[in-house]
Each structure stands twice: as structure tokens, then as C-alpha cells.
């Protein structure tokens, strides 16, 4: 990993920098697979690192999302530089932050010590903020600062939770520790009240990292302003927060504070889904719509974890994987449309099926998948989580189901209003007898069309507007991630089932 970081600072060629980033992701992916197949898990890796099925599973998801984003990044950053939105001198900084994000997240996931996990989780915040601010526009810098202040501020509460936990272990064992492996052995000896307080504080920090309401306010701005290559924020940053919540709740399940901790998770989950569902309906910005969708899905994940049954956790873990596949499909497709229209607003998206048919279908199929329609794999995950929630409260299930329907309607509403827009260029051509290839600020009556295209780019007689800003390599990762999601909808590999069962067993869900 260090070799890839060092080599990434040497080349001046964008192609080579991108190849090193993709190689970094592939290396993490391959090494995680080898560890799952070859190592006797769980096991230690030196003094501070600990490998088990859970952190390797999250690492696999992270590396997969990162690798897809790395391949997407080449065409996307080329288009940003060609449009003058990214200074070529910042390209090395971009790839340095990009690679560092994966490395710091990996160390955080494999850390046995909670303090080490906290430190490297905070470092991922810095790296992610660099990716948001890389375009140097004022709005991007504001979004990056907002992200840092909210997440880092919330992580200070998590630090207080660590202090509580260390004090509890010191009282029970005579010597304080923050190692996961030691805490899970002795957690039944801790004071339930103080343990719950520690969980509550840490939930604030990890919940902000995951984008859970009400700590989600950084998410819409970060999604809207960050380059679409930062789709890894969904696959990496949010899963890192959920990982910390799963670990902490697994600790509390061994104490009498488990019911109260479950109530916190369920309440936060319902609140996240409710806030996101009502916020999504009026969204006109595509990336903000996708951002609020992430808040909704994090809420459903919290419900799956908070229910506390093996079946609910099984499908919550599966949900983490599929959510990344589908969400990156949506964000990659949104990035293609952003380069086409230089906008994320649905009012500016005209002739989508003519100009970018693959991105249009990526958004349609991705939207169908993200709302949990069969045969896409989020359908069984949502179904079984809701089925398990009925055992907690039928009213809870009904409320969540209604809000999920509202969220589905939001996607349908956005797509219908965006994709039904067609330019009136041909009608104006008939009236004014102006050649299509010379449509511009003079000769087109449609003000919307002028705003969308003519004021933003110069025309080329042989190309459609902004077509040159969309590179063919940007479409491949979106198609690949969508294909994986569809495949999981039809076939559930035995190896994946065995991996999820092993995680549940190691966490003590028996």
C-alpha cells in the first residue's frame, strides 16, 4: 500500500497515476480474498491489527467500490480538466487523497484497538474532505468544511465514549483496555448504565460518519458538490460508520443494556427514514436526491442492526454490499449526466435518451434497484428486515413501509419530470430554417435550451452539446456495478452466505 502511495507522487502522466490508483484498489481486493480463503480466522496481524470475517467483508466492499471509482476517475477527471473545472496541477493531490482514503480506512477496519480505529476513521474524514474541495470552487470548499466540522465534531463525542469505555475496563480488569477482543470477553462485568452512556456517545460519532439523521447534514452538500468519482463516500465512509455501530452493539448485546441500545438504533433508524423520505420528494438536484436516499438506507440498516436477531443482521450485512453496488451505479450515471449538461438540476436535463442513453438507463434501473423492487437484491434484504421488525412492533413495520413507498415515489417523480423533457429545437428549426448544428444563442427561441447548452459551451458542428466531456470509460464502471447487483438478484452465492453466517457467529448472534 505504501508503495502505491509513494509511486503515485512520482509520475506526471494522468494515465499512470490512474493506473496506480486502480492497482491500489485491486491489491486490496485480492489480498482480502486471499485472507478470507487462506487464513485461519479470526486472527491477529501483529500487535495492533486483528482480522476476522466482519472487517474483511467490509474491506472487500470498500475495495470493490474504490476500484470501480478508480477506473471511472480517469475519464471523469479528464473531462473536468478539459472543462476548466479542475486545475491539472491539483491532479496529484487528488490521487494522493484518493489513495490515502483507502489506506486509512483499511487500517481503521483492521484495528483491534478502538482508539486506533478512532484515529484512522478521523484521517479518512480529512482525505474525503480533500476530494470534495479539490475543484476549488467556493461551494466545494464550503461543503468540505461543513463535512469536517460536523463529522469531526461528532467524533469528539465518540472520543468521550472511548474514555468511558476505558474507565469501565480499568475498573473491571484493574488495567484499562480498548481492544475489541478483550472488551467482548469482559463486557458482562461492566456497569450497564455507563456502558449504555458510552454506546450513546460513540453512536453520535459513528452515526455522523454513516450519515444518519440528525447528523446527516453534511451528506447532501458533499454529494452535490463533490466530483462523482467521490461515490466512494457512499461505499467507504458510510460503511465505516456502520461497521463501528455493529461492533459496539455486538458488545452491548452481552450486557443488560442491550434493550436500551436497541431502542436508540430503532429510533434513529425510523427518524432517518422519515426525514429522508420527506426531503427527497421536493428535490430537483439529482445528487442531493441520491444523498437523501443514502440517509434513508442508513436508517434501514440501523433498524436491521437494532432488531438484534441473526436473520435481521444477516440481511443488514447483505444490504451493505448491495447498497454500494447500486449507489455507485446511480452516482456514476449522475456524473455522466453532469458532464453532459454541466448541471445536476432536472430542469436542465433534456433529450437524455438521445444524448446519454446508457446513463439514462443506468439511472432508471438503479432507481428501481435502490427502492427495492424485485428482482433486484435489495428486495429480499428489505423484505426480511421489515419481516423481522414486525416481531418488534407491527406499527413500526407499517410506518417504515409507508415512508419507503414515499421514497420510491420521489425517485419516480424525479425521473418522470427529468426524462420527459425534450427540446423544442426541431420546431424552431422549421420556423427559422436554421441548421441544427448551428443552434446557439441566436436562432433558438427556447430560453431553457439556451440556458442548458448555448451559454455553457461552444458548439462543434460535428458533435452534440457537451458530448466531448463524456468519456467512454466513464460508462464501464456504472455498467459493471449494475451488472453485479442484477446478478446478486438472481443468484445468491453459497460462499457469500457462508461468509455472512461466519460474521454472525463471531459477533455472538446465536
TrEMBL record:
Residues 111-401 form the NADH:quinone oxidoreductase/Mrp antiporter transmembrane domain. Its main location: membrane. GO terms for biological process: ATP synthesis coupled electron transport. GO terms for cellular component: plasma membrane. InterPro entries: ComplexI-like_HydComp (IPR052175), NADH_UbQ_OxRdtase (IPR003918), ND/Mrp_TM (IPR001750). It is an enzyme of class 1 (oxidoreductase). It comes from Methanosarcina horonobensis HB-1 = JCM 15518. GO terms for molecular function: NADH dehydrogenase (ubiquinone) activity; oxidoreductase activity. Its EC number is 1.-.-.-. The keyword Ion transport does not apply. This is Hydrogenase-4 component F. Keywords: Cell membrane, Membrane, Oxidoreductase, Transmembrane, Transmembrane helix. It is a multi-pass membrane protein. It is found in: Cell membrane. The chain crosses the membrane at residues 20-39, 54-73, 93-110, 116-135, 147-169, 189-208, 229-252, 264-282, 289-307, 313-337, 358-376, 396-416, 473-492.
